[in-house]
Write a structure and sequence with these properties.
The protein is of the alpha/beta class. It is built from 16 helices and 17 strands. The chain starts with a helix and ends in a 7-residue tail after the last helix.
Length: about 450
C-alpha cells in the first residue's frame, strides 16, 4: 500500500499499535525487497494465491470432512477443499490427497499414529541423511511412544546405506519406515526400502516436505511411483503455496484411516483460508511447475559450483553436489555454522546453520554447516548467473571479511531487480482482460 496510507494510519492509532505495524512493515520491506533469502524451507506465494489467502475463510470453522461437517455455513469451503485435493491428486499421478494437516509435522503425526501404536518400532533415515525431528524420539515419534531406529548411513554417497538398511529391516521387522526429510541433496532409495519393509508386513512413509514442488515439477521422483505407501509434505517449501501440509496415498483404505486420525486427533479447524491459496498454487504449478522446478535444480547446482570456485567446501562434489534445491556447506574454516549464518544475515543474506554428517548431535547450537535453498530466489527470477553473484557476495562476507554493512547495501540494491514473482499467472494481465479478482 502507498506510504501516505500508513502515515494516516500511524496518526490515528495508539503508540503500541504503531509499534506492531512498524515492525511488520519493516519486516516485509527487509525480507521481501532487500535480502537474498536462501532458507531451504521457505518460499513466496504468487500475488493471485496471496489474494485468495486473505479472504473471509480465515474467520471460519469447518471441522470434519467436506459435506460432512460439524458446522453449518461451509458449502463453499467444501467445494474449494474438494477441488484443491483433486488438483493435487492429479499432479501426483492419481493420488488421494487430504489437505487438512496444518503442517508437514501434523501430517507425519497423523500417518505415524495410524501405522504404529505405542511400543511399535519405526526405522528412519539417519539424521545425517536428512531425517526431520518429527521422525525421531525427540519429536513426533517420541510423543507417540514409537521407538525410532536409524538406518545405517553411507558417508560416501551421503545417503542411506541400502544393503545394511535392508538387513536391519529384515531383522527388527518394524511397523513402518520413513524416508525423505529436511536436509538431503540426493534422492533416497525408495524402491529398495519399500521392497524390504513390505517383505516384513510394514509400510513405507516418504516425507516430501522439501521436494513436493520438485516432484510436481517432474524433477524429483514421485515416491508413490516407486513403492511408498503414503507421502506427507509441506505446501510452502519448493511447493510455493501457503504454510500447511498434505497427506497423499493411492491406498483408499489407508487414506480413510489417516483421515480419521487427522481429525479429531491432530487437527480441529484446519485454517480454511489455506485452501483457496493451495488450489491456486496447485493450478499454477500445473501450468508453470516444470519450468520452475527445472530452474530450481539448475540454480542449486550452479550455486554449489560457484561456491566451490570461490573457495568454499561444498558437500557432495564427487556426486555432482546436489540434485535437489539444497546446497550444503562446511564452514568450519569460516568459524562454524552459527557465526557464519549471523555474519551473512548482517549482510542481508539469509541462511540457516545446520549439522553436517560428521557433527556430533550435541553440536546443534554451533554446527559445522550451512543449509542453503534456491527455490525462493528462483521464484523471483534469479538464474544461473545470479547464483555466481550470490557466491561472490558470500565469499566477500565469510572469506574476505569485508564490512557486512557495505555488502548489505549492495545486496539490497541487487535485489531491486528481483521483486516480481515468476512462474505464475500475471495478475495485471488478468485485470487487463477484465477477469477481476473477487477478493
Amino acid at each position: 500500500m502507498p506510504d501516505e496510507f500508513w502515515v494516516r494510519i500511524f496518526e490515528m492509532v495508539p503508540s503500541e499499535l504503531r509499534e506492531v505495524l512498524e515492525y511488520t512493515l519493516r519486516h516485509n520491506t527487509w525480507r521481501k525487497k532487500e535480502t537474498i533469502n536462501l532458507i531451504a524451507s521457505e518460499n513466496a506465494m504468487s500475488p493471485l494465491a496471496l489474494s485468495a489467502y486473505v479472504t473471509d475463510m480465515m474467520h471460519r470453522y469447518a471441522e470434519g470432512k467436506p459435506f460432512k461437517r460439524y458446522y453449518q455455513g461451509t458449502r463453499y469451503v467444501d467445494e474449494v477443499e474438494v477441488r484443491a485435493a483433486k488438483i493435487l491428486g492429479e499432479l501426483l499421478n492419481n493420488a488421494l490427497v487430504d489437505p487438512r494437516p496444518i503442517s508437514g509435522t501434523t501430517a507425519n503425526a497423523s500417518v505415524f499414529r495410524v501405522l504404529g501404536g505405542c511400543g511399535s518400532k519405526a526405522v528412519i533415515a539417519p539424521v545425517q541423511a536428512g531425517a526431520h525431528v518429527s521422525h525421531t524420539k525427540f519429536g513426533t515419534l517420541g510423543a507417540l511412544c514409537i521407538e525410532h531406529i536409524e538406518m545405517p548411513y553411507d558417508p560416501e554417497n551421503l545417503n542411506v546405506d541400502v544393503d545394511k538398511a535392508v538387513k536391519l529391516i529384515e531383522q527388527i521387522k518394524p511397523s513402518f519406515a520413513v524416508l525423505g526429510g529436511s536436509v538431503y541433496l540426493f534422492p533416497h532409495p525408495v524402491r529398495e526400502i519399500a521392497e524390504a519393509i513390505h517383505s516384513v508386513g510394514g509400510k513405507l512413509v516418504y516425507d516430501a516436505a522439501h521436494v513436493l514442488g520438485l516432484i510436481v515439477g517432474k524433477r524429483w521422483r514421485n515416491p508413490l511411483d516407486y513403492g511408498a505407501d503414503v507421502m506427507t509434505a509441506s505446501t510452502h517449501k519448493t511447493f510455493p503455496g501457503p504454510q500447511g501440509g498434505i497427506v497423499a496415498t493411492r491406498d483408499e483404505k489407508l487414506y480413510k484411516s489417516i483421515g480419521k486420525a487427522i481429525f479429531p486427533y491432530f487437527v480441529s479447524n484446519h485454517h480454511l483460508h489455506r485452501l483457496p491459496a493451495l488450489a491456486v498454487t496447485a493450478i499454477e504449478m500445473k501450468y508453470f511447475g516444470e519450468a520452475y522446478a527445472d530452474q530450481v535444480v539448475r540454480n542449486a547446482k550452479a550455486l554449489a559450483e560457484a561456491l566451490a570456485a570461490e573457495g568454499f567446501k561444498v558437500l557432495g562434489e564427487h556426486l555432482g553436489y546436489t540434485r535437489s534445491h539444497q546446497v550444503v556447506l562446511d564452514v568450519r574454516p569460516q568459524g562454524g555454522g552459527a557465526k557464519a549464518a549471523k555474519m551473512l544475515e548482517e549482510a542481508n543474506i539469509i541462511v540457516n546453520k545446520n549439522l553436517l554428517p560428521y557433527d556430533p548431535p550435541d553440536a546443534i547450537k554451533d554446527p559445522s554447516g550451512l543449509r542453503l535453498g534456491v527455490q525462493e530466489m528462483t521464484r523471483y527470477g534469479m538464474r544461473e548467473d545470479n547464483m555466481k553473484d550470490i557466491a561472490r557476495f558470500m565469499k566477500r562476507v565469510l572469506i574476505d571479511k569485508e564490512d557486512a554493512r557495505k555488502i548489505a547495501r549492495e545486496v539490497a540494491e541487487y535485489r531491486k531487480e528481483f521483486l516480481e514473482v515468476k512462474y505464475c499467472f500475471d495478475v495485471n494481465t488478468i485485470k487487463d482482460n477484465k477477469l477481476y479478482l473477487l477478493f
